[in-house]
Structure formats: structure tokens, C-alpha cells
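As described in the Methods, two query proteins were run sequentially through the folding procedure within a single session, without resetting any intermediate state between them. The first query and its resulting C-alpha cells are shown here.
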Amino acid sequence: MSPAFSRALRSFKHRNYRLYFFGQLVSFVGTWTQMTAQRWLVYRLSRSVFLLGLIAFADQIPIFLLGLFGGVIADRFKRRDVLLVTQSLAALQAFVLAYLAASGAVRIWQIFALASFLGAVTAFDMPTTQAFVVEMVGPADLGNAIALNSSLGNIARTIGPALAGLMLAAYGEWSCFLANGLSFLAVLVALSLMRLMPRAASPRTGSYAHFLGEGLAYVRSRPVMTAVLALFGLTCMAPFSTLMPAFAEDILGVGARGLGLMMGASGLGAAAGALMLAARENGAGRCREIALGVVVYGLSIVVFSASKSFPLSLAACAGAGWGLLWAYAGSNTLLQTLTPDVLRGRVMSLFAMTFMGTSPIGSLLAGFGARSFGAPMTVGIGGFLCLAAAAVFLASSASAGDAAFNWLAVDSEG
């Protein structure tokens, strides 16, 4: 086995992480299967593209509204216990949706209500999952585990929709929802089998408002963390994937099949970026790494906005996936490295709110911009704004961020 390959998989030496990785892989495939079938069901019942956008908003807005409370729960209670509850509730949502779809009595409002319920569950699940990683692998392998986790979603994004297409054609939407509900059993079993060291949880004295204030004050007192959150939030607002169908149909003329290839190219680029990150040695340069990811993402979508060539557009999609993955993984690693464990859930809830909260806003702005200026100019402006934000970030905080990272790495080893 080559040294680079060994470095890429070093988190697998931890038994708890092996259980987590393969359990989550099954679950993520189920999630993408349900997501594809849910969108299809909404469109089949309504024939409304507006409702397709609205269902995504209904799924994400609870994360923005409740994310900070999710971070408090992640810090005040045992994280594995929280995950057992959230994963069980997510499975219940899938089973209810499967029953409604199989009965033929499903209505649009029920789909929206269940999507919002799942979003509320995710608001507590996401920061807890992010904060739980260090308990499975320890600080030394944290960056590697985050990179491998990033590859999970991109693998599932490739498998899940394809599986959904087969199941939709053979059985209907209910089968996809049922499969997703069953997929959560893999995570629940994995969590139950883990052997974890005791963790010093935050004291439960004091109000929830006090706990929220502690997390916000900690981030506010560290400019590099504030800068990372701001940069990644602005990057997620760039209207790239939202307008991709318009490029496939009206500009490149490649239709639905071309759209699928472009989405697949973005996923492959992200998967390649995740593997490259996983093979890296731990070290400094996190701020430069984040900025590099944003620059590659910005340049890629500028090229995409101007392209009239389908092969060039595919390459630009792959570059955008690579860049966004590097920005995400670098931001995640830096924030977690600079955060003590008692505050980890609250800080990661801010990170989750940053990209889950700004993406719907970016999608909304993309719609208005495309209607006023056209899709190519709107996407191009988003790319140039990413480049400008990365330049400001590098000029103002990269040196301070890397120094903080180096200090913490030395301190944790000593």
C-alpha cells in the first residue's frame, strides 16, 4: 500500500470511525434516493417548478432558524445519544412519507410539512454530527476524517439518484422513501456498537440563552473564525448549481442528460478534492487552503458562465466541485481545530447555519438576477464576487489564521 493511500485512509484505524463511515454511507445513499423521489413526487402532483424551489426552501430554512439551538444541545448532552434520537426521528419521517405515498392519499401540504420536520431534525443532527467526529478519531486525524466525510456525500450523490431512477420506474416513490427509512438502521446500529471514551460535557447550569451567548462570544473574539464563516457563507451564495438547468437547456442545448453529466462532473471533482485532502499530511496553511478553494470555485464558475462548449463546461463543473469541497473541508477543519470541545457543537452550528442559510438566499437572488440580467451574467458576477472575497480574506486574516492553527497544533501535541 502506497504511503499516500495509507495517509488518505488513516482514520480507518479507529474502529468507531469505521463503523460510522460505512453506516453513514448507506444512510446518505438512502437520503439522496429520497430527495430525488421527493422532488419527482412534488412535480408529478403539482407540475410547478416554483414548488420545486419551495420544497428545497422548506427543507433548509429550519436549519437556519434552529441551528444555534442544535449546537447548544450538542454541547450539553452526550452526542451519541443526541444522534440516536435525531436519526430515529429522520427514519420515522421517511416511513410516514412512504406510507402516505403508498396509500395514494399523499398531498402537497403533507410533503412540505414532513420536509420541514426533517429540516428541524437536521438542525440538531448536523452540528452534533460535526462535533462528534473528533470523539471518534481524536485531534490528530480530525482533518483526514473531515475530508473522508466529505467524500461520503459525493459518493452518495452519484449512487442515490441513479438508484432512485430505477426504483421510481419499477415501484414508485413509496419504495424510495421506504428504502431511506431502512437505511437509517445502518447508522443506528453503528452508533450502538461504538465504544467511546467519557467526554467532559458542558455544565447544564445556566440558561440556554447563556449557552448561546458563549458560543457567539467565542467566535466573535477570534477574527479568523469570523472571517472564515463570512467567506464561506458568501461563497455558498454564488448562483451556480441553481441555474445549471437553464445552461443545459437554453445555452448548451444538451437537455436533461447533459444536466446529469454536469452534476456528475461536479460531484467527481468534489470527490477528487476530498481524496487529495485526505492524503495530505496535517499541517499549517489552512487559511490559504480555504482561499485557494474559493479562488478555484470562483474561476470555474466564471469559465462556466462564458462557455459555449459542453466539454469545457464539464471541466468547469469539475473545477467548481473541487474548489467548493476544499473551501468546505478547510473551513470545517480550521473551525474545529481552534474550538475547545465544550464549545464545539455551538461553533459548528454556526458553520452549518452559514452554508445552509445562505444557499437559499443565493438561490432566490439567482432567480431575480437571471430574470433581469440573464443566467450567464448572473453566474459570472457570482464568480467574480467569490474571487474578490477570497482576496480580501487573504489580505486581512490568512497570516493570523495560520499562526493560530500552528499554535494549537503544537499545543495539542505537547
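Immediately afterward, the second query was submitted; its sequence and C-alpha cells are:
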Amino acid sequence: MSKSGSIETTEFRRSFHQETSQLLRKRLIWFISIWGGLGLISFLFVIVMMVRGSEITNIFTSGATKAMFILANGAWIVVYAAVLVMVIEKRVSDKRVIRLSLGLIIVDGLMAVSLRAIDPSFGYGAWVYVTSHFVACCVFPWTVRQALIPLVSLVGLSTLSHFVFEGDSVSKSLVFGVINAAFMTPAVFISGIRHNQRIQKSTNRFLNHRYGMLRQELAYARQIHEALFPPPNTTGPVQFVYRYEPMRQIGGDYLFARYSNKDSEGNETLSVAVIDVTGHGIPAALTVNRLHGELDLRFAEQPEISPGEVLSHLNRYINLTLSKHSIFATAVCFRVNASKNLLEYASGGHPPSFLRGVDGSIRDLEATTFMLGACKDKDFDPFQTEVEFGPGDTLIAYTDGAIEARSVEGSMLNIEGLRRILASSHPLGADDAEHGYGMWSERILREVASHRGGVPPDDDTLAIEIFRPIRTTSGTAASEAVADEDLDGQSVAEPVVS
């Protein structure tokens, strides 16, 4: 069993034990109050009849038997009262409460057997402890093993009494013992059935509680995870928007973006890293958190760090810390310099990005090196590459969830399918043809969802679009992007032509 499974089992056992103890204390108080109360009323009735000299007291053949009756019943009442006080005032531990519940039934049987041995005319036969045991098995949250303890004890005492004190033969005594055991056995089965039902109900309550806690924790985790992503930027000479659809609540795709080095004309350098960690869900999200910390620290120390240096640093970190746990990642890093119309990039095993020119041409930006973490730092070369990236150009990057999306028939969208989407003259349709920027990331996720045909995603999907609006001679943007909200609440860019 895994460590987490062992912890959950321990927590359930603790919860079930506490629940059983509370129930047993409550039921024990009920049992003593009702069963003990009936016994007390019967005893007081007999005492009153004795005082009045009623014929009912003729069952006592002598003063000695009368004294034994009063002594036995008085002791029985004292025991019941003492146990009631201890349970109400919580003077005993949970284990002792179980022993007390078992002990009360044994005391019932011991009194009945003793009085029958002294004088059979009392009428205290096996029915007394058989009934007491049956009621207890129906009331107390006993296990089968616990229900067997009074059965074995009382059958043994009764058999011994028949042989030693009542003068029956060994065979006759054993027959009485077998008959008593047969009458008491159904109550043991009832205890077993009720115990199993309690376990099932307690398990359901425990799992529902844990599920509720997990959902709440996942909601908090998602808030923290989404806070790591940068806000889209739809103003300035270099803009970007993105759409993200995790397979589960949180996932292993990540986007890092940082602006730096603003010049006198307002141009800034945009650095972007798109990362896809192996795995899904919480484990992948935890890995993303670690990589975010590394990137945040690296850019704080080196704001102008190149894409190749970023990729090399990530490879070294993953190789030293995560690869031993079979965790790897693909990543593509970009740096856009608007003043130089330059795009620098390095890609470690990531699917090819697409550079869509202002003229509609599409250029693939293939991976330049290995998957991150697969080799040591000394063997890793990012092979950073430069391409021209001028006004009107658009860069589209994505994670493999986009191209590996499967249709109902099982066919994947593939890179060619994504390239056909980007070959459209406009991102969303004829009605939006005038909107040249900030729409491709939304279009990609829509097409991916359409390709799946309503089937839930089996991988995280992230699509990002970096674009440079065309500016007029007066220096104002020919198309300015404004934020819009889609059905899922994700921010997308909807440019407006000025």
C-alpha cells in the first residue's frame, strides 16, 4: 500500500473508531436506562409484594433464598448504576466502554445462572441472558468477535452450572449448552450485519467528506496555479493573448511572459516561454510551480536573458531535480525585439510553432534541440535561431494537446490540420475578417474542440498568439486589441480597427 493510502486508511480507522465510541456511549446509556430500568421496576415490585405478604412471594422457599434474591438483584442494580454514572461522566476510555458493555451482558447471565443454581423456582432460566444478549446485539455497535464473547462466556457458565451445581450429567449439560448457543447465535449474525452496514455508511461519509475537501483544495490550487500565468496584453507594439484548457482542474502546461528594456519610442522586448510538463493534473501542476519559480528568479536576475540561455537553464534544472522521478518537459522560448524587427527562439522537443506573415505565408519554427531533462547540461546545446518578425506578423505557439486531439473515430488533428486552420485568411470567419490580430488562439481551441466532437479532452491544451499590430505613419496603431470574455471566462483579444 502506498504511503498516501496508508494515511487515508489510518484516518478512516480513527474516524470510524471515534464514531463507534460515541455511538456506543449513547447506546449504552439507552440500554442501561431502559433494560436496567425494567429490571429495577421488577425488583421493586417484588420487594413491595414481600412487604405486603403477597402470594407471589411464595416462590421463595426459605429466608435464605429470599436474601440471595435481594442480594443478587441489589448487586445487579448497583453494577448498572455504577456503569451508567461512569459513562455519563466520561470517566472511562473508549476501550473500557466496550468492555463495560460486554460485562453488563455477562453480569445479566451470571445473575440468572446463580439464582437458578440456588433455587430453580426463581424462574431465572436461560431466557434472561439470551434475551439480554439479543437486545445488546441489536443495540450496541459490536463486531462479530465482540458479540461472541458474551455468548461463549454465558454458555460456558450455564453448562458448568448444570453439571456442578444442578447435578445434571455431562451429556445433558452439554446438550443444554448447545441449545443455548443455538438460541444466541442469530444475535451474533445480527451484530455482523449491522457492523458491515455501519462500515459501509461510515466509508461513504468519509469519502464524501474527503471528496468535498479535495474539491475545495483543488479550487484553491487552481486559483494559485492560474495566478502564475501572465495577464494577456493587447496594447503596445508587441502584444500577446492565449487560451488554456487543462484536461483536469489544473494541468502541466504553462506560459511565462516578461517585458523588459523599454526604449524612448515605447518599444519593449517581450520574452515568452511555453512549457509542457509530462503528466497531467496535480503532479504536473506542482512541477509547473517549481519551474515558474526558477523562471521568475532567472528573469529577475537577468532581464535580458536570451531564449537559448533560458532553455539551457531549464534543461539543467529538470535534469538535476526532476528527471530522476521520470519527469521531463518540452519548451519553446521566444524573445521579440520590436525595434529590430527580430524574433529569437530556441525549442527543446516542442511541437513546431508557426510564424504567419503579414502576407498570409506560414513558416514552421521547428524544434532546435532535445526534450528538456533528457541529457546533462554539458551535452545540451539550445541552437538559438533568429528570424525576422515585423509589423503585421503573427507568431502562434501551442502544446501537443492541440495536435494530438482525437476525433470520435480516433484520428488526430496533427500538425497539418493545425496548419490548415492557420492558412485561413482570417481567424474566426467572414464576419470577423477585419479583425486581424488576437483571434488565432481562440480559433485553435474552437477547432480542437470541434475535432474532438464533444469528447472530453485527454490532454492539456495551450495556445498563444504573439502579434505586432501594423502602425500608421502618425505612430498610432492601425488595429488596437480589446479584451473580450469567451464562454469559459478566459480572456481573448478582439482587435478593433481604428
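DSSP finds eleven helices and twelve strands in the chain. We note this only descriptively and draw no conclusion about the first query from it.
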